[in-house]
Each structure stands twice: as structure tokens, then as C-alpha cells.
Amino acid sequence: MNGTLDKGWNPKAPSLQGRGLGWGLSHERLAELHGFGRENRNNPTQPEIVLWSRLNRSQLAGHKFRRQAVIGPYIADFMCPRKALVVEVDGHTHTDPVADARREARLRELGFQVLRVTNTDVMGNLEGVLELILLTLTALPDRWNRPQPDPSPEGEGL
Fold this sequence. Notes:
The chain is α+β, with helices and mostly antiparallel strands. The chain has a single domain, classed as Endonuclease, Chain A. Helix content is 37%, strand content 16%. It has 5 helices and 4 strands, in the order ααβββαβαα. It has helices at residues 27-42, 46-55, 97-109, 119-124, 126-139, and strands spanning 66-71, 74-80, 85-90, 113-118. It has a 4-stranded mixed sheet, sandwiched between helices. The longest helix is centred in the first third of the chain and has 16 residues, at 27-42.
């Protein structure tokens, strides 16, 4: 910008990230969450690799998914933006049921349905997990009546 100040951006203003929902997170916290999401995408667990291999590129009945998506102060393992479905793959990192319940309640307040599957289910019954996800997607209404308003920030699926 040739040394000029960008007067259209104020680092102290509330964030409007989260696809225009305004999560109310600071720019620094949002950048930190996106960094964690990127790190998780670069170092996925084996069950996440297996499930993503069947969810990416809209393979599941044309439903687009994002992985390690930032939603409010949380990072969802997988998220279908059109249906507002979060799919969480529970393994060794989900050991606090109270924290998981609080997180799930907050995601519901933000308009998301949460579906939990276990690492064991993904690795031992992938077709059953995919069927459950598809049944859940089919039961949920679309969040909007036109194509997804923005591509994923990582350029996935382009």
C-alpha cells in the first residue's frame, strides 16, 4: 500500500469472520484459531484421513464439506456449510464430556447440528458412518436457497 495506512481495517473492531456471522472474536484470536485449524489439516489423525477421503470433493451425494473449520471459538473436524452440520470424530482428545456438551450446546446456539462418531466407528464401519452422515444431511434443511456464497478459504474443492 506504499506506506499508507489502511483506514478500512481496525484491529480493535469486532471481527466479522465466520462467513459474515460475526463471531465476536478479536483479530488475534481468530488468526490463532485459523492457525490451529491449518495445523490440524496438515497433521490429521488416521480416522480423519479415512473419513476425509470420502467427504472431500463433494463425494457424499454432492454435499460440500470443510475440514478443521473455525466456527465461533471452536474448530470443527468436518462441517457442511449448506446444511450447518458439524461432524466430530471423537478419539483421545475428547475425554471431557462436560466440555464436549458445553461446546455442542454453543454450536447449536450458533445454528449447527453436531453429529459425533468415534475413531473406532470410522476405522471399522466407514460405510455405516457415511450412511449416518447422509441420513442426517437429508433430514436437515438447507441454510440458503442458492449455491454456497463463498468458496472455502483454503481453496479446497476449486
